[in-house]
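tool=predict chain=A
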Amino acid sequence: MKFELLLTGLAGLALGVGATLLMVDRAGDRPDAQLDAKSALSRERVDQIETRAAELDERIRTATEKITDRDTQISALQQRIADLKAEAELDPLGSEADILPAPAAEDVPGLAKGLNAYMGKMMNSEAGKAIMRAGTMQGLKVRYADLNATLGLSDAQVADFLGLIADKELLGMQIPGSDVKMDGDGVLGLSLDMDALAKIKQEETVLNDKIQAILGEQGYEYYKTYEDTHEDRQIVSALETAMGDSALPLDAAQKEQLLALMIAERDGSMAMIDGMEALSADFDWEKAKSEVAQRNARVLGHASGILYQEQYTMLEQLFEQKRSMMDMINMAVEARKPTVE
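tool=predict ok
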């Protein structure tokens, strides 16, 4: 009997010790689990920080590449300016006497006065025109690179084609009789010699015929379509430039989508309304401005699905700048209309 009691006591003691050990072990599990949870959370945060750091590194790398590209472009432009000066046999300072050997603008019939006097003297100087034409050609090579590749033009055809386009560009720079000045109230006034403008438009027609001879009928139609959408590409390019140094640069997909949207929403509305046709006395300005305003509103209505807010706001500003330009040209034409007494 005593032996049985002893066994019972030992069994009870063993159960008690086991229970105690189990309680200690479970008590130890709780802080370990908490530590594991905290460790997992910490690892998740570290992963997030590392991902964000990688994104920032990529943006820094992209920005550095853009800065390097711009520095390269600036160096190339500076070299081109130096080459043009050398070709024109100008002194190192490029003195005005060398660039502008013509008489003062007011002494040359038909040349611009006021703010356009400098341009007037440039266009009356062979050296000045040569410099402007060469500079224009450089820009046209970039502007028409896609078109030239699509049409498969030879190097000789490209040179002739761009030369004619450059001549057309220079026509727009030598509109005689222009006078731009500010009155006492700070209002900008403009006027144009419409007879001289008509002559320039005739010269433009001759240049267009020569362009058609180079491109052929089908190529010329493609060129006209390309020209009609040039303003759209200009705005997209301006938006890309404006956002280049921001935190939200315009990417390739956005550019493609926005350009396609702008072309689609043109829908037969006035194209290049600030071109030669817009300077005609019978140009329907009210219709043009109404169509452009409606078209821009349609573009903005869809652009919110393509652009970030900062990009969208910049596009609105570019459209507003274009509207202001239209108003200035409209003022120039209105100033030349005869008054009814």
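The first strand starts at residue 113 and ends at 114. Residues 1-7, 24-29, 89-116, 176-191 have pLDDT under 50 and may be disordered.
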